[in-house]
């Protein structure tokens, strides 16, 4: 196998004992390949973010809820958040104890809330309506409230979850109403939380939002925890040398603020973060195959089997993913040309990379879409009745195991 463009995975020794061609031959194309070493190292980065002793990392499983990866996160000592009863269910199956699961819900039914209460997990609500509903069905229980700290951040307006234009969180002005409802139902407020949005690359917005959240916390005397949320970005433009988020600087700034605040509050309560993307994103490459190369008008299209049913991010958010190219049986060569890399779904918007300068690709080439581990498989679907790919894990010893089998045609009939 010849590598036309494979600097990132070569540097990381990403594929273990096999090469992309062998993996595709064995497990089919497309294929999500994960690297356990990288996944574990990102768990550890987050665990070491701050020095404060009562610090806990909750992996936000919406980014990737593969059971095997959840188990690894648990082995690494992480807790988890959940967005739905389905995530609670999977997390319990992955061996998390109820007290390690935080249900950060939004607009849920009484039945869904009951599911969380019966599962004995902690619950965060993010509106007065939902606080009232929880009070009705769990009088005298515990609750956390998600506040909108007023500062949002994110790579797309679709994923900014605090500030003025978002459905999330309780406005800080409503603290008196929150207190009234807590009293009405004898609820104990155990924590407050926030999530400002997804993917920041500079510490400032997060740090500012934490200051704001901590000042909201001063309204409440008996908190057991404060959850500062996720959003930690990863460099998607690795091939052009994008810098990483400076987590050392971020950690130092957070430690400083937290230390000063806990002195003021009088207690060293638990401080949590809720990273999703940061943990699995860089641990996966999505492999696919080039099946057609053609000109339509002026534009050159490279057609692959990576439709937006397999990876939705480029279509949904115009997100950039670096692309590597691996060639099977002829010489690697690297004429750079501008192409539009597309999938096999029956929509013209099914584009992985538009007008991207890439080494020339040919039918039969294997491509690797980098940094596909967060919101990749998690957002995949059976659109066009396509089969979702398998997921495999390259273990630390270089051997691989299947951590989710590829869909079969029978799976398409499962609910009929
Ligand atoms: N906590 C809450 C309450 C959240 O809503 C989210 C993400 C997270 C934590 C984790 O955020 P992260 O650390 O992953 O940025 N599908 C989009 C991202 C959506 C994020 C939704 N909420 C994407 O592919 O970019």
UniProtKB/TrEMBL annotation:
Keywords assigned by UniProt, alphabetized: Amino-acid biosynthesis, Decarboxylase, Lyase, Lysine biosynthesis, Pyridoxal phosphate
A molecular function GO annotation: diaminopimelate decarboxylase activity
Binding site residues for pyridoxal 5'-phosphate: 231, 274-277, 375
Catalytic activity: meso-2,6-diaminopimelate + H(+) = L-lysine + CO2
Domain Orn/DAP/Arg decarboxylase 2 N-terminal: start-end pairs: 40-280
Entry-annotated residues carrying N6-(pyridoxal phosphate)lysine: 62
Active site as annotated: 346 (proton donor)
Entry binding sites for substrate: 277, 313, 317, 347, 375
EC number(s) stated in the UniProt entry for this protein: 4.1.1.20
SUPFAM superfamilies in UniProt: Alanine racemase C-terminal domain-like (SSF50621), PLP-binding barrel (SSF51419)
InterPro entries xref list: Ala_racemase/Decarboxylase_C, DAP_deCOOHase_LysA, De-COase2_C, De-COase2_CS, De-COase2_N, Orn/DAP/Arg_de-COase, PLP-binding_barrel
Domain Orn/DAP/Arg decarboxylase 2 C-terminal intervals: 35-373
CDD domains found in the cross-reference section: PLPDE_III_DapDC (cd06828)
Gene Ontology biological-process annotations: lysine biosynthetic process via diaminopimelate
Reported cofactor(s): pyridoxal 5'-phosphate
Family label: Belongs to the Orn/Lys/Arg decarboxylase class-II family. LysA subfamily.
Subunit record text: Homodimer.
Main function: Specifically catalyzes the decarboxylation of meso-diaminopimelate (meso-DAP) to L-lysine.
PANTHER family per the UniProt record, alphabetical: DIAMINOPIMELATE DECARBOXYLASE, GROUP IV DECARBOXYLASE
Protein name as it appears in the record: Diaminopimelate decarboxylase
């Amino acid at each position: 196998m010849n590598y036309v463009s494979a600097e990132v995975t070569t540097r990381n020794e990403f594929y273990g004992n096999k090469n992309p061609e062998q993996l595709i031959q064995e497990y089919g194309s497309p294929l999500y390949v994960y690297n356990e070493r990288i996944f574990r190292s990102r768990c550890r980065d987050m665990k070491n973010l701050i020095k404060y002793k009562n610090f806990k990392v909750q992996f936000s499983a919406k980014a990737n809820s593969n059971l095997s990866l959840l188990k690894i996160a648990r082995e690494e000592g992480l807790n988890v958040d959940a967005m739905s009863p389905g995530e609670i269910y999977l997390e319990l199956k992955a061996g998390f104890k109820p007290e390690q699961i935080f249900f950060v819900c939004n607009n849920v039914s009484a039945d869904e809330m009951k599911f969380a209460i019966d599962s004995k997990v902690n619950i965060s609500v993010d509106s007065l309506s939902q606080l009232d509903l929880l009070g009705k069905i769990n009088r005298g229980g515990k609750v956390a409230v998600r506040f909108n700290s007023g500062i949002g951040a994110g790579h797309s307006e679709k994923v900014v979850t605090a500030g003025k234009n978002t459905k999330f969180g309780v406005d800080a002005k409503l603290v008196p109403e929150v207190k009234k409802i807590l009293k009405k139902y004898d609820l104990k407020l155990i924590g407050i939380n926030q999530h400002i949005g997804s993917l920041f690359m500079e510490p400032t917005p997060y740090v500012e939002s934490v200051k704001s959240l901590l000042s909201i916390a001063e309204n409440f005397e008996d908190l057991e925890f404060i959850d500062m949320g996720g959003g930690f970005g990863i460099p998607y433009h690795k091939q052009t040398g994008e810098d990483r988020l400076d987590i050392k600087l971020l950690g130092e700034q957070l430690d400083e603020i937290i230390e000063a605040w806990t002195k003021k509050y009088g207690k060293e309560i638990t401080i949590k973060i809720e990273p999703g993307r940061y943990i699995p994103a860089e641990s996966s490459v999505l492999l696919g195959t080039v099946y057609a190369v053609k000109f339509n008008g002026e534009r050159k299209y490279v057609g692959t089997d990576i439709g937006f049913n397999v990876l939705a991010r480029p279509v949904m958010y115009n997100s950039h993913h670096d692309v590597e190219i691996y060639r099977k049986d002829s010489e690697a060569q690297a004429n750079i040309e501008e192409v539009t890399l597309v999938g096999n779904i029956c929509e013209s918007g099914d584009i992985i990379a538009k007008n991207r300068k890439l080494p020339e690709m040919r039918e039969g080439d294997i491509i690797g879409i980098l940094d596909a581990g967060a919101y990749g498989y998690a957002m995949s679907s059976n659109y066009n009745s396509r089969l979702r790919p398998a997921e495999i894990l390259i273990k630390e010893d270089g051997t691989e195991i299947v951590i989710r089998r590829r869909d079969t045609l029978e799976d398409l009939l499962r609910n009929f």
